[in-house]
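Inputs:
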Amino acid sequence: MPDRWTVVVGVKQVPDEDDVSINPDTGTLDRADAAAILNRPDRNALEAALELKDEVDARVVAMTMGPPMASPVLETAVAMGCDDAVLVTDRAFGGSDTWPTSLALAETANYLDADVVVCGEETTDSSTGQVPPGIAAHNGWAQLTYAEGVEALPEEDQLAARRDVEGGYERVVADLPVVVAVAYGENEPRPAGLHRKIYAETEFEPAQVDADDLGIDEDAVGLAASPTQVGGMETVEPVDRERERVDTAAELTERLAEEGVV
Amino acid sequence: MATVDVSEHADVWVFVEEHDGDVAGVSWELLAQGRTLADELGEDLVALVIGEDVADVGREAVERGADRALVADDPVFEPYRADPYGEQFRHLVEQRKPDVVLIGGTHTGRDFAGRVAVPAHAGLTADCTELGIDEDGHLEARRPAFGGNVLATIKCERHRPQMATVRAGVFEPAAPDPERDGEVERVDVVVNEADTLTAVLERSVGETVDITAADRVVAAGGGTDGELDPVLDLADALDAELAASRKAVDEGWVGHDRQVGQTGKTVRPELYVAVGISGAVQHVEGMNDSDVVVAINDDPNAPIFDHADYGIVGDLFEVCPALADRLRDADDPQEVIA
């Protein structure tokens, strides 16, 4: 194990969910103007990674997979305090579901000699939460998902986390290397410092790696290597609601009594 | 990339999630739905039980519809850890080649499903709300996308098993039938404590509430600012279960087991009262099957009013107590006569 930990943070550019809206009358989806932003849960991942840096002087590298236009999320990561950032980009990755995506990110973690990989709990665009366990599974590493607090144990080459579980919590200690998925909203992400921000926007260029650099066979990624396919999309009909405004508790109780629910 | 011979794979498997002898309710829901899928495919329904001293759980799985329960019983499996569970499950999948594998969309289920899907190169669909079989015998896993505005159908035609995690509350559990025949088979445990990558230092779990079975639900959102007393009082007056939006759960005001919506649970009560909930699509998705929806919010433009039958624009500190009083009065025949 090296003297200094390398912490790799997975981040993703997603459409701003606040810009994706539904018209309740027509049931149609309106996301034409959705801005591309950093997946919100990834801010919690970045904060957790930077706390590890503060704690054990780790080197923190952000990684994202996507086309070159996805790299602004890497600038955000560097502005927040990441030491470096890598764009994982290759046409061969196009159409990947979570299986090849987690393979590419697992190989990037290897390429960067990661001791710890930190991700957000899930992305707001596809919300599967499958990529962090996928990275761990591809590499045969330990995983700590729904992590609420992360504690470095450098003497033992271990990491401990409090995990949120149904009806309670647990504390788990994992051997390095480990993949951590940080519970959404769990910490207070730090703002980007002005100097870092200027550096990220003007001087910083992320490194780029492709399938070849990562030693990935092109047939092992992309649409063809994705076990799942989207077979169709149906718009969900909005539920027809009364949408009646009432003014008083008395009036509401009356209505609910008429409905037979109180 | 090599594809598998899908015809070699048969049977519908349901992972029965248990912690310390307690089974997650979603497991029994999936067993009921798994029975339907297995009958449609003409295959067996197999329950997979992993834990310590879990033969009884295997027996109950048979009573609830499984043709066979595979039981991996060993101290290494208590409490749950992703790596030993995943390794054991992977071994069984490789050895026995199931066609379909269903797993509850709990933190545990979502934690370890990928631990099997990746080494098996299986298709894994997250957080499904509908499951069916198409004319070619493939699983059709439907999941809400774009915050529930769209239902996407995911298929996995060239890989096996076809895996899905499924949200709690979308299927009805089958009642146990003590007379039901089936086999409980102990399987070889292939995991050693020495090979594990993690250790659970502490586990603290209270009574888990099942909001999916409630007839009435009162849910608190971000607009409550964590002031839950009026909401709890209203829930008490209605004899309702407390639920919450993601915001209220993330802030730590309400436990995750009470979260409604995407990544939470689907509820379908007779009455759903949303207090201080703005009505993000992710939340609406989890309560849209409620019979009657009431919204209480001080923002007249909150989207929740579009998804409610009755709405009151007002301060929850005034509306909730007034409503609770009114309901309590209505319960009291003396008051009604007076």
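The first strand of chain A starts at residue 6 and ends at 10. Flag for discussion at group meeting.
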